[in-house]
């Protein structure tokens, strides 16, 4: 699979174009690093669209009554915000960008197992994104069901649902192909001597994730096809008027979509497990336990989907079962947090931008995780279900967890990816403003939810006004931080100081190759010796 | 790849598996005439699992593959059964 070629070993992947030139040298490249950057640029573009929609929602909620949009537009805005952010940003997220870029280098390979399939994954991703955007621009109004496409509304609404449903279906294929590629790559292409227990933790997290992508995604794919068939032909699987069961839709949807949360969060945890030992200059605490906890989260994560359905009319037995299982998944998650803290204990902590992001990840993830136990418990769930509390919990986990880890990862691997350093002062200022804005944006929602403010309403009672003002102000502060972070990275990628091969004194294999890496990563495939490990700090 | 063992499967075996698949398909149609009550879904899933098992083992050559691949496929089946079981905690106790 790693055939020798005439590709020069001293030319970086950013300079080498192969048989295509210009833009075509990017969009037809099978180099895993270029594909990783294709995902990065596509996602950043879509992310900015999602952010603008989020800002519009928050602006609408700055005061009771209509501010800038009516209820129907608000429904469309939160639906498209959710579909873009979930299916196009956080699910592909870290695996598509950093998995593609770093996985082969971290395991000592020249590329992934199927480079052409990898490029196809990106094209399929773009096709899916295009389809979803089509549903907004054309037809009888934007989708307004929420990102969950709940039956029976999803096949009864007059909105333009089919392109959005088909788009989500197509995006699933991209995810499956990436997962398959990563599993085969890790099984077949690890460097000689790199046994499973010597593989770094970011690849391990990608391994757990890939299995979820491969096994769970087809379930949502076929479920969305059933919704489309229900819309077109009225087949009656989910339509109660035809003898169908709308709760079956919720089961099928969440059998995928809850494990999808672990598709989002596991690679985020994996990136944190790389950053913390590097900036603590210390061997990761409890390597094997971290590996087992990754696999345990991936496995138990399959059996907790029912906690999204506690108030939907499920049987009591199922409610107790899913509540217990939900509490179980907190155990391996907490193990990870304890191990990260223990890694820092007595380490030589080097406080740099990636470390700030990683430390704040632990903080916001803990808030998100503990509030998850509140909604995982049956009694409190009934009270808090479909309130702003759930929105706060979800954003602390998914935006706080994945977002903070993503920004930590890009500041960690930026010198390797672009061969240049960023301005650390502006990076730190961006992080600080972003974090303050994030907490101001989402923390009030916990309070609002406990006071009884429902989610997905464009209007609210006067008593919720003050907390909503704070939340909207937070969204502006967070966006300012985001703009600083993005401008700093873009400017640095073009004109930052040249980076050395190993600016952070990291010990994993990506820090042994030049910055930016040559086209095929390694002159010679590295060999792991008996004493070698991924985090061998003195 | 060149070092891996080749195996030759006699056509007769393929024909027998094909015949079994056809018989099982007819059974899965015929069984819809019988009222199995709560076990209707169990029956349909069991027959479908046997059929996909035959395809995996013989047509997709799982029988001749490495042990770790057999274990992985087996674990996927166990996961599938577990997910169906957990789903029925709702349907059977509703």
By helix and strand content of chain A, what is the structural category? mainly alpha
Radius of gyration of chain A: 23 Å
Count of individual beta strands of chain A = 0
Distance between the termini of chain B: 52 Å
- Helix and strand sequence of chain A: HHHHHHHHHHHHHHHH
Q: Provide mean pLDDT of chain A, rounded.
A: 94
Query: How large, in whole angstroms, is the Cα Rg of chain B?
Result: 17 Å
By DSSP (H or I, 4+ residues per run), the number of helices of chain A equals 16
CATH topology grouping of chain A: Cytochrome C Oxidase, Chain A
Percentage beta strand of chain B:
under 5%
Uncertain regions spanning at least 5 consecutive residues of chain B: none
Query: Helices and strands of chain B, in N-to-C order?
Result: HHH
- The CATH class of chain A: Mainly Alpha
The fourth-level CATH homologous superfamily of chain A is Cytochrome c oxidase-like, subunit I domain
């Amino acid at each position: 699979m790693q055939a020798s070629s005439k590709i020069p070993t001293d030319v970086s992947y950013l300079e080498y174009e192969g048989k295509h030139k210009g833009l075509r040298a990017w969009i037809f490249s099978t180099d895993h690093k270029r594909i990783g950057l294709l995902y990065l640029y596509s996602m950043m573009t879509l992310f900015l669209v999602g952010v603008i929609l989020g800002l519009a929602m928050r602006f609408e909620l700055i005061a009771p009554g209509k501010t800038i949009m009516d209820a129907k537009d608000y429904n469309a805005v939160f639906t498209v915000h959710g579909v873009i952010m979930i299916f196009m940003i956080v699910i592909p997220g870290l695996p598509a960008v950093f998995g593609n870029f770093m996985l082969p280098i971290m395991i000592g390979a020249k590329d992934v197992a199927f480079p052409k399939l990898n490029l196809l994954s990106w094209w399929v991703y773009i096709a899916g994104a295009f389809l979803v955007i089509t549903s907004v621009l054309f037809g009888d109004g934007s989708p307004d069901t929420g990102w969950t496409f709940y039956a029976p509304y999803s096949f009864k609404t007059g909105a333009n649902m089919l392109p959005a449903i088909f788009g989500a279906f197509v995006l699933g294929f991209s995810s499956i192909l990436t997962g398959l590629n990563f599993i085969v790559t890790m099984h077949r292409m690890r460097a000689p001597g790199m046994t499973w227990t010597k593989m770094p933790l970011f690849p391990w997290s990608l391994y757990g994730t890939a299995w979820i992508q491969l096994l769970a995604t087809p379930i949502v794919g076929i479920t969305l096809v059933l919704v489309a068939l229900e819309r077109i032909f009225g087949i009656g699987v989910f339509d109660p008027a035809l003898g169908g069961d709308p709760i079956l839709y919720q089961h099928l949807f969440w059998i995928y979509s809850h494990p999808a949360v672990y598709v989002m969060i596991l690679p985020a945890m994996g990136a944190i497990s790389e950053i913390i030992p590097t900036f603590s200059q210390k061997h990761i605490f409890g390597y094997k336990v971290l590996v087992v906890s990754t696999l345990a989260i991936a496995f138990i994560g399959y059996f907790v989907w029912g906690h999204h359905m506690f108030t939907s009319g499920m049987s009591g037995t199922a409610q107790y079962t899913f509540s217990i299982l939900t509490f179980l998944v907190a155990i391996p998650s907490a193990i990870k947090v304890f191990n990260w803290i223990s890694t820092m204990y007595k380490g030589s902590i080097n406080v740099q931008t990636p470390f700030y992001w990683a430390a704040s990840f632990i903080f916001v993830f803990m808030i998100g995780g503990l509030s998850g136990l509140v909604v995982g418990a049956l009694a409190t769930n009934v009270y808090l279900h479909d309130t702003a509390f759930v929105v706060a919990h979800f954003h602390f986990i998914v935006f706080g967890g994945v977002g903070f880890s993503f920004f930590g990862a890009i500041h960690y691997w930026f010198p390797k990816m672009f061969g240049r350093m960023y301005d650390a002062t502006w990076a730190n200022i961006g992080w600080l403003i972003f974090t303050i804005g994030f907490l101001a944006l989402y923390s009030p929602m916990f309070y609002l939810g406990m006071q009884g403010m429902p989610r997905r309403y464009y209007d609210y009672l006067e008593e919720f006004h003050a907390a909503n003002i704070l939340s909207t102000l937070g969204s502006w502060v967070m966006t300012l931080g985001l703009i600083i972070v993005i401008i700093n990275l873009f400017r640095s990628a073009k004109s930052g100081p040249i980076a050395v091969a190993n600016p952070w004194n990291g010990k994993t294999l990506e820090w042994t190759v030049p910055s930016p890496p040559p086209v095929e990563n390694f002159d010679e495939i590295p060999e792991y010796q008996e004493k070698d490990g991924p985090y061998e700090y003195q | 790849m060149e070092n891996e063992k080749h195996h030759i499967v006699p056509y007769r075996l393929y024909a027998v598996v094909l015949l079994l698949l056809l018989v099982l398909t007819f059974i899965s149609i015929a069984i819809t005439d019988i009222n199995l009550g709560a076990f209707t879904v169990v029956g349909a899933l069991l027959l479908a699992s046997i059929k996909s098992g035959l395809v995996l083992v013989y047509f997709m050559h799982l029988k001749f593959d490495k042990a770790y691949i057999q274990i992985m496929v087996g674990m996927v089946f166990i996961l599938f059964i577990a997910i169906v079981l957990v789903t029925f905690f709702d349907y059977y106790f509703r």
